[in-house]
Amino acid sequence: QLLYEVGLYAASPTLPQTCRYLNAIFKASPASYRAQYLVACLEQSRPREDAIITKILRYPICNEDVLEAYIRMTASKADSWKRWVPELPRRLFRTLATDSKSSHEGGALRWTELDHPLPFLRYLYTCPHIPPPAVNSHQGYALTKAVQTRFVPLIRFLLSHGATPDWKNNLAIFIAIYRKDLPMVKMLVERSEKTNTRPEGRAAGAKRQKLEDRVSVTPEMVRAAVKCKAQDIVEYFTREKGCIPDIHTLLMLE
Predict the structure, then answer these.
(1) Main-chain phi, psi angles of 217, to 5 degrees
(2) Is residue 114 part of a domain?
(3) How many CA atoms lie within 13 A of 20 on its CB side?
(4) Which residues lie closer than 8 Å to 60 by C-beta, 6 or more apart?
(5) pTM reported for the whole predicted model
(6) Residue 248 sits in which domain range?
(7) Mind telling me which InterPro entries this protein's record contains (predicted)?
(8) Where are the alpha helices (DSSP H) in the chain?
(9) Comparison of pLDDT for 233 and 48, the residue scoring more
(10) Which of 44, 72, 95 is the endpoint of a domain?
């Protein structure tokens, strides 16, 4: 208990790294103590009101239990939090490849709905006490990392919450092209949701209209697919999406 009090007084992230003994003690600390530690850290740094939740989410110790405990401790400020949309922290995606508990099969990662950070993200986007984080924070970092590691359940989750692949000149789509992954390219370009345009009383078998694509296919994408010799992606871009290759790409095809 005394060491916990020292930790709150110091509010230093390096204290638990002083020795193995301290590391073990602070690693076993309950969520309530970790929430108190976050309160102490914020009292020292004094962030702007609109950045409080953003800053809390950046701490590696901040998980669902810790955030719930913090919200209970500072319930009087809950109304002010709802006015500001927090950022989605990069720490949740930075080490996806090394954090995965998925098994390798055929050289590819088999991701599941239970893999980090999906459980925590589902909590963040349904928590009634804070606004849903901005899914395109840091120029679409989350979606780009998900595509880079082929984390399909995470890609679907992010897209369903408004993520767009057009950041940094469509980097996420180019990564999928370089991997010669046509299903992933389609997932990023097209919206899977359907809009039912059938008026009331119209037959149930009426056509359903697809929503507009998330991005427009460009000649640069076609050229990248040609360079990678991803013929199926080239045909998808040119035949299904109607993108006309530029003269340099046509010369490469010849």
Answers:
(1) -70, 135
(2) no
(3) 0
(4) 91
(5) 0.85
(6) 135-192+214-253
(7) Ankyrin_rpt-contain_sf
(8) 2-10, 20-27, 31-45, 52-58, 64-73, 78-81, 91-94, 96-99, 118-124, 137-148, 152-160, 167-178, 182-189, 219-227, 231-235, 247-253
(9) 233
(10) 95
